[in-house]
Amino acid sequence: METDAIRKKWFTMVNPNAGNGKGSKDWNRIADLLEKEDIPIVNNFTERRGHAISLTKEAIGDGFRKFLIVGGDGTLNEAVNGIFTQECCPTNETVVGIIPVGTGNDWGRMFGIPLVYEGAVRVIKENKLMAHDIGVITYHEGNVQGRRYFINIAGLGFEALVVKKTNKQKEKGRSNSTVYFFNLLASLLSYKITGADITIDNKTTTSKVFSINVGNGRYCGGGMRQTPDALPDDGLLDITVIREMGRIEIIRNLKLLYDGTILSHPKIDGYRSNNLRVTSETILYAEADGESLGHTPVEFGIIPRGLNVVYGTKIIQ
């Protein structure tokens, strides 16, 4: 296939397990819609965790620059990490779009990408592009340092514990919109708040921390709004720090996680910066775009306008 022909095609990655098997069950219907709209694709199915990373890197080496995800936020995250760990082209020469088939679909929610397949395919057809910032987290697994890129939201502490439990259940085939919320409530019984040093713009504060969220996007966990004012193209990360709160107080204020008013609580602080470092008394686990990672010490940074995305409606603030 000649380079020009390759560049016009969408390298499509379908996660057959996304949405409790919807990726596999609905693919033929989605493929028919893509064909009907004359959207050229080269299709691939992911076979294991991390497979979309290697598929993306190989595809870029073969000349592809447009990537269509048929899956959830986890598959999207893998595609982003494939783009940012390849060395064949500048990342801002790539384009990413998504047809949401996952359980959370939080990134697509922010950009008005419909869950109805006809609507999502129409978004791809219209091909409205914007340059999107990409977050990067450096973390540890024991004494080994790791790095992960994220397009939406990363978390530390309680959030990461809930994600870890949810991912274990997903691996066993239990995946629906209520699993995350159930794990959120169940984790309150075992989670212990820990002291942490939080450094933003070279200023360090020490606090007992329940959780920290760091976002380019506004939604996580199937609709929670923990970084409710984040913008995906301002070159900054929105940072939400939930300080020491008791279980009853947390349960009483759960609605704040969903209605966009989380920063109004006196024990919750909001920041906006391009850098963050967290060290802790006992380790805090990390996650990025719903993918479980290692633990503190961690550092966050941002790559402004790192790649192009296809959007339905654009956030303006």
Task: Walk me through this protein's architecture.
This protein is of the alpha+beta class and 317 residues long. The protein folds into 2 domains: 3-127, Probable inorganic polyphosphate/atp-NAD kinase, domain 1 (Rossmann fold, 3-Layer(aba) Sandwich); 135-303, Sandwich (Tumour Suppressor Smad4). The chain is 30% helix and 34% strand. It is built from 10 helices and 14 strands. It has helices spanning 3-8, 18-36, 51-61, 73-84, 106-110, 117-126, 158-171, 179-187, 247-252, 256-259; strands at residues 10-14, 41-45, 66-71, 95-100, 129-141, 144-150, 153-157, 194-200, 203-215, 237-243, 268-273, 276-280, 285-288, 291-310. Strands 7-9-8-12-14-13 form a 6-stranded antiparallel β-barrel. Helix 3 packs across helix 4 and helix 7 (158-171) packs across helix 8 (179-187). The chain is globular, with a radius of gyration of 19 Å. The model has no long low-confidence stretch (mean pLDDT 91).
Give the name of the CATH architecture of the largest domain. Answer: Sandwich
SSE order, one letter for each helix or strand: HEHEHEHEHHEEEHHEEEHHEEEE
Cα end-to-end separation? 43 Å
Q: Structural class of the helix and strand makeup?
A: alpha+beta
Report the major sheet.
Answer: 6 strands, antiparallel, barrel
Which radius of gyration do the C-alpha atoms yield? 19 Å
Compute the number of strand runs.
Answer: 14
